[in-house]
Structures are given as structure tokens and as C-alpha cells.
Amino acid sequence: MAQFIQRFHADKSAIRDELLIGLQEPQASTSPKYLYDALGSKLFEAICELPEYYPTRTEAAIFDAHADEIAVSVGRGRTVIDLGAGNCAKAARLFPVLEPAHYVPIDISVDFLRDSVNTLQQRFPEMEITALGVDFSAPFAFPDNVGPAQRLFFYPGSSIGNFSPDDAVAFLSRLAQAGDRDGGLLISVDLVKAKPVLDAAYDDALGVTASFNLNLLNHLNAVLEADFDVRSWQHVGFFNTELSRIEMHLESKSAQTVRWRGGCRDFAAGERIHTENSYKYTAEGFTALLERAGFTLQQAWIDPLGWFMVCHAKVNESLS
Fold first, then answer.
1. Residues 15-44: pLDDT tens digits?
2. What pTM was computed for the model?
3. What is the CA radius of gyration of the chain?
4. How many Cα atoms occupy the beta-carbon half-sphere of 71 within 13 Å?
5. Which domains, from first to last, does the chain contain?
6. Between the CA atoms of 181, 95, 156 and 60, what dihedral angle is there, to the nearest 10 degrees?
7. CA proximity to 160, closest of 21, 2, 319, 310
8. What whole-number distance in Å separates Cα of residue 205 and Cα of residue 64?
9. Nearest partner of 277 among 139, 160, 170, judged by Cα
């Protein structure tokens, strides 16, 4: 039977404080994790189906085309630690070739994982599964049944791009310290490409990404007891060539005052709330980032257009 362990419990006061600090900075901002309330998560699933949003289908094509090579490189029978597992679909796609001895899906909410994990257990009855409800972006300890040997950290979806390069190094360094040479890291990264392709992926013609971004205001209203009027804001998404990152913002259409319990802020027309970054890398640049974090690239798989890369890296011998 699958084991479920919930260790993350939301601190509503801390969440409120974090949001208010960001909203009251000279450049207002929020963490991208607040885009993913119940409706936001459904809207993101819709984004993944859009013709402009290439990452999901491009990554899936790489996994399908190179599954056997990936299995040979990373090894079979590992403990697969799925970071931000969601519905577990990406990891499950590789189970027939990876044949994990132990699957450890991690997400903030075990309840979100429960149905997917129970279905997986029926499909793979011999596999040990331990679902963890933790915030994997912060340091945490594994339970005793997740041993240190042969840990393969699985981080698909190019989510590493939501970290700044320095924060990405710090995060991956923690994984390197928690791993060993017999496991390693299987990670996806979005590569630099033509600006029109990137701009369209984050500002689609149907406006689904705009709805996803604007829904953040509904989330803020609920958490902060605020009075953001969604109709008074517009989505802005573009590739910042100089910083090599997608930026998403919410821009005020006119001068307005937004109030919340205990405070308020005036926004000028055109003033923005910075809601997300998604850094894009060259293959060489990401390889160098892995080295800084304590990993050595073993093998990389890139789609024919050169848009997306899946990497297998091992912990440097000096750390293992």
C-alpha cells in the first residue's frame, strides 16, 4: 500500500505577511506559487494544451523518443523522487523503462496526490510508493524509509526556470548534498529561442495565459480580504532578452487604490505587479549552472528544433 505523509501545513499569517511585503515594495511583486490556487491550476492545465505553449509537448516527445537511452543513463531500480509531482503523469510515463524500486512523489498537498498515487499503485502493485506533502523548495528531511542510496531526483517541466540562476544553484546544491553518485538528477530546462516564439507561449491568442495571470487577483482578494477589480488590470507577458527570462506582470489600466484588511496601496496607470519569471538557458549555460551546484552532466537530449533539453547529471565525486 502507498504511504502518505503530510508535513507541510499552510501558515495563513505567514502567507499574508509574505504577500503584503511583496505588494508594498516599490516594484510590487508576488511569488509565482500564488498563481496556483484551484482555478489557477486548472487554467495552467489548459495552457499546456495551447498550440503556442510548446514546452509540455516538446518535453513529452523527448521522453518518448529517448526513454530507453534515459533509462540506460540513469539506471533502473532507483528511488525516484518526483519534485512537484502534481498528477504524477510525467514520472509514470517513464516507469516502464525506469522500473523504480521506490517512487516518492512530492507536492505541497498529499490530498492532491492521493487519487493519482492510488491509481499508480494499482498499475504497479510491486512498487513501493511514499507520497510526501512538503514544500520541496525549502529544506526538509526525508522519512526513514527513503534511504540515501540511489536517489534519482526528477524535476521535469522546466520549472527550474522559475528560480533566479543564483537561487537555482542554491536549490540544486541541496539536491546534490542529499544525493549520491548512484542516483543523480533528471531535469528539464527550456532553451533560449526566437523572441516571437517565447512571447507567444506566454501571451496566447485565446487569452488563457492572461486569465491565469489575472486570476491571481482573485486569489489575493480571498487571502488578503482585498478589493482588486480584475477588470481594472491587464496581463503583460514577454521575453526579456537582456536578462534571458520571460516576465509576467499585471498592469493597472488606470490610477486606482486597492484596499485590504489593515492597509491599502495606490497604483498609477501603467504600474505593474511582477508575478512570474521563467529563465531560459543555452545548453552550455545550463551545464555550467549544474557544475556550480555540484553536478556533472552525463547526457542530454534535445528536440530537433533545439527548443528544450532533458539532462541527466550525477553528483560530483567530491560531494559523494
1. 999 999 999 999 999 999 999 888 998 999
2. 0.93
3. 20
4. 17
5. 55-193+282-315 (3.40.50.150)
6. 130
7. 310
8. 29
9. 160
Biggest CA pair distance of the chain: 60
Q: Which residue has the cell 507536492?
A: 107
Q: Shortest CA distance to 160 belongs to which of 146, 142, 178, 174?
A: 174
Q: Which three cell numbers stand for residue 39?
A: 482555478
101 with 89: CB under 8 angstroms? no
DSSP codes of every residue in 196-241:
HHHHHHTS-TT-HHHHHHHHHHHHHHHHHT----GGGEEEEEEEET
Q: H or E stretch including 49?
A: none
CB 32 within 8 A of CB 275: yes
Closest CA to 161 of 77, 58, 10, 286: 286
DSSP state of 191: B
**Does residue 319 have a pLDDT over 70?**
no
**Is the pLDDT confidence value at 320 over 80?**
no
Q: What is the DSSP letter of 77?
A: S
Rounded Cα gap, residues 165 and 163, in angstroms: 6
pLDDT band at residue 89 under the 50/70/90 scheme: very high
Cα-Cα end-to-end distance for the chain: 32
Q: Is 148 helix (H, G, I), strand (E, B) or coil?
A: coil
SS3 content of the chain, % helix, strand, coil (to 5): 40, 25, 35
